[in-house]
Specification:
The complex is a heterodimer of chains A (112) and B (116). Chain A is mainly β and 112 residues long. Chain A is built from no helices and eleven strands. Chain B has one helix at 100-103, and strands spanning 4-7, 10-13, 19-25, 31-37, 43-50, 56-57, 68-72, 75-80, 89-95, 106-107, 111-115. In chain B, a hairpin with a 5-residue loop joins strand 5 (43-50) and strand 6 (56-57). The chains are: A mainly beta (112), B mainly beta (116).
Chain lengths: 112, 116
């Protein structure tokens, strides 16, 4: 079965700093999804990557999938307190038809 | 993308009792997925519910403890039976579908269960 390793497990950054979260798969990724979860709340979909070398951005968040489709990174530029939460990467094998398998998550705190 | 209504949002239950969680989807979907999120942890898949057939359970989860119903293409329930404090978690349902590549898998808002 597919396993996703996320690093770091937790991260504390000063407001305005950049940060990167990594997600590494034990197998080739077909669909890689990034979600954000505010403490005690539901999941917010950020981005989905499918093609090797693909890169997507939304506001100050950029996600990349490497050419070999086994590693993804999530980069936040000029972090803000609103970025705080748990970031989860998830993977599926046949997009939309099989359940997502999640990494253990990265807990991000942004301090003033 | 689909919209899921999940109920209840939270409950406090006595040990030994059961809790049934409902998920209603605003469109027909083939597969529904149930997850557990233990305190401070990520999401762990409990089972996949396909309408018209028995749910498929992941290792470590059994039907007697987590019975699932899927009576039609828009509705599913998960029951957590014979509750113990270790069952205190957030339970979420999810659907994928055609829109998953653009909008991601859709998740219910979760049910926060506390067992006392």
């Amino acid at each position: 079965s597919q396993e996703l390793e996320q690093s770091p497990q937790s991260l504390i950054v000063q407001e305005g700093k950049n940060l990167t979260i990594n997600c590494t798969s034990s197998k080739t990724l077909y669909g890689l999804y990034w979600y954000k979860q505010k403490y005690g709340e539901g999941l917010i979909f950020l981005m989905m990557l499918q093609k090797g070398g693909e890169e997507k951005s939304h506001e100050k968040i950029t996600a990349k999938l490497d050419e070999k489709k086994q590693q993804s990174s999530l980069h936040i530029t000029a972090s803000q307190p609103s970025h705080a939460g748990i970031y989860l990467c998830g993977a599926d094998s046949l997009s939309g038809n099989t359940p997502l398998v999640f990494g253990k998550g990265t807990r991000l705190s942004v301090i003033a | 993308s689909a919209v899921i209504s999940q109920k209840p949002s939270r409950d406090i239950c006595q040990r030994g009792t059961s809790l049934t969680i409902q998920c209603q989807v605003d469109s027909q979907v083939t597969m529904m997925f149930w997850y557990r999120q233990q305190p401070g942890q990520s999401l762990t898949l409990i089972a996949t519910a396909n309408q018209g057939s028995e749910a498929t359970y992941e290792s470590g989860f059994v039907i007697d403890k987590f019975p699932i119903s899927r009576p039609n293409l828009t509705f599913s329930t998960l029951t957590v039976s014979n509750l113990s404090p270790e069952d205190s978690s957030i339970y979420l349902c999810s659907v994928g579908g055609i829109g998953a590549t653009n909008y991601g898998y859709t998740f219910g808002s979760g049910t926060r269960l506390t067992v006392v």
